[in-house]
Amino acid sequence: PDADDDYSVCHPCGLTPESVADSLIKADIDLFICSYNPAATLQTEKELAMKYLGHRDNDEKREITAIPMVPESQSQKKHIIFVLDQSASMACDWAGVVAAYNHFIDWLCQKQRYSDLVSVVQFGTFADVTVKKQPILGIPSDLKFGCDHHTIFLPAAQSACILAKSTPPSHTPSIIFMSDGEVGDDDAKQAANRFSNFNTTLQDRLENELELNVIAFGSMACHTQLKHIANSSQNGRFHMSTDTAELSNLFVQIADAGFHVADLLEAEIGKRISDAVSDKLALE
């Protein structure tokens, strides 16, 4: 390759708003800034937009277009609460569950959701809070398997709701409940009622339904009981996962819900083209 194509040669001082704006204007390029985290990119957008608009060669006073990749209703920071079954039947799959959990965290980092908080409840007969409201850059990557021979849903539901209730006003709670088991019907009903009661509290406080994703893992999970828990909120969803590879993809799908990047970008570009055609026809 030519030496002039080398990044360090072209930009010995790195990229600056001035150099970026200058290159764009000289090449007659319109810029779309697509942000997954407008709060994190706001200052960069402002500086670049100012340099672009005020550039001496920008005679048409064109402006940079900012496109938030997250709908405004979903742009609020989240407190994500994992509720993970660690009963004896999960022993062989636990390493894969932890890998799926880390894949989810990596996805949050990739999308620059550094303000999100994560908590983890691990449960069998009892429930243990092993991660509590930690920023994603500070959470442990290893979740120790505290093998428990039995599964009971109610303690896990109670711990999850206590964590959700402690969510800071700047965040909204989002619960991911995963189990491979079946419990007594009374226990399942009590767990569902616990989530339903918290959902009512959340509606009164935030006028919003609890985001609750419930996952039936493996072939032995009781779908009826887990669906009942998911139905505790109108914003509840029931999912199935046969193995940890599918679980990893499912975690990301849950996190990615609402991120319709291609549709947003296509709509914005279409609008820009339509406006340009209208302006041209008006001039003619």
TrEMBL record:
Coiled coil: none
InterPro entries according to UniProt: VWF_A (IPR002035), vWFA_dom_sf (IPR036465)
Domain VWFA intervals: 79-254
UniProt xrefs under PROSITE patterns: VWFA
Protein known as: VWFA domain-containing protein
